[in-house]
Design goal:
Radius of gyration: 18 Å
Shape: globular
CATH topology: Rossmann fold
Distance between the termini: 55 Å
Order of helices and strands: HEEEHEEHEHHHEHEHEEH
Number of helices: 9
Number of domains: 1
CATH architecture: 3-Layer(aba) Sandwich
CATH superfamily: P-loop containing nucleotide triphosphate hydrolases
Length: about 260
């Protein structure tokens, strides 16, 4: 049985870290600074939302953190591994084994059942699923009676729950979500966000999610706000109203500059 001190230690463990991270596109007159020396830490058992206006750098930040895009300067560490030192094959292995992804598009294979989609990354890697962990994930996402169905036989919310379960199947160090509720109606979106919240609380998962929706952000433990490629504010224990008010202030500031 873990002690309170041990649980606190797990909660404080840094799973991902960006240090003075920069991303520059082009040069000369066409030079665009998408990220400008951004530093942030993401701890185990923590749900972080990243918000900002279009062009603020939030998606670029997520993609650089997740090893989906290269960065110009600075460093990114995932589970103690420095991404900038990895060759392509090593980076692919790290993404496969230590990182989970949930995108706006569900990215499920139409010919496979829900269970086959969930376990597909493990099968590709030649790994056998941990059945106890798999059962726990399936129970958490509420898909036990839909595992034999193909994507076309599932609702959008159910398909995204399959995608969430797939992201968790390999017990990743961290999960990145890029507008994971963007293609869902409000009810299905709330179900997905509740599941993500549960996976943080019950499975000690670490989640970093880009969203434009204040209601989605209110499910997180904290919100990082980006503008012009920099983190300009941070909000702990957010509510939808406070997040919306903060975003309005940033919009007003942008219009007056």
């Amino acid at each position: 049985m873990s002690t309170p001190a041990a649980a606190h230690g797990r909660a404080e463990q840094v799973v991902a870290r960006a240090t003075r991270l920069s991303k520059v596109y082009g040069s000369g007159d066409t030079r665009v600074v998408a990220l400008d020396q951004v530093s942030a830490e993401f701890r185990r058992g923590e749900f972080t939302a990243i918000m900002g206006a279009s062009g603020s750098g939030k998606s670029t930040f997520l993609h650089c953190l997740a090893g989906l895009d290269s960065f110009t300067d600075g460093s990114v560490q995932i589970d103690g591994v420095e991404l900038g030192t990895l060759k392509d094959r090593q980076l692919t292995r790290l993404r496969r084994d230590r990182i989970g992804f949930i995108f706006q598009a569900f990215n499920l294979l139409p010919t496979l059942t829900a269970m086959e989609n969930i376990t597909l990354p493990l099968a590709i890697a030649g790994h056998k699923p941990d059945q106890a962990w798999l059962d726990r994930i399936v129970a958490t996402v509420g898909l036990a009676d839909r595992l034999g169905h193909r994507p076309a036989e599932l609702s959008g919310g159910q398909q995204q729950r399959v995608a969430c379960a797939r992201a968790l199947a390999s017990r990743p160090a961290i999960i990145f979500g890029d507008e994971p509720t963007g293609n869902l109606d409000s009810r299905a979106g709330t179900e997905i966000l509740s599941f993500l919240r549960d996976s943080v609380r019950e499975l000690e998962q670490t989640i970093v999610m880009v969203t434009h929706d204040p209601v989605a952000a209110s499910h997180a433990d904290r919100v990082l706000f980006l503008a012009d490629g920099r983190i300009v504010d941070e909000l702990a224990q957010p509510t939808a109203d406070v997040v919306l008010d903060r975003m309005k202030r940033f919009d007003a500031r942008t219009r007056t500059n």
